[in-house]
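Hi R.,

Here's the chain you asked about this morning:
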Amino acid sequence: MGEWIDAESLQAIILGAIVALGVLAALVLRIVRKLLLRLALVVLIGALAASLWLQRANLQDCVETCSCKLYGQKVAVPADANPNCV
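And the predicted structure, written out as tokens:
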């Protein structure tokens, strides 16, 4: 990941993405007419949201160990979050 992004800012970004996925799921339920397609899209969106939520939980815990990763990509830990991470 880029140097401008760190574990704390990613938590806010992930929450925003989860909210956006919720809005997308509501739109799918309202717009898509075919039941099977609607169900498949909502399950896919739900799985993505759950995956993001789990990654967010991992970001909260990794600040102590200084080894933060998001989907396998290393994420910088800010010095004010853990001064031992330099």
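DSSP finds two helices and two strands in the chain.

Let me know if you need anything else.
M.
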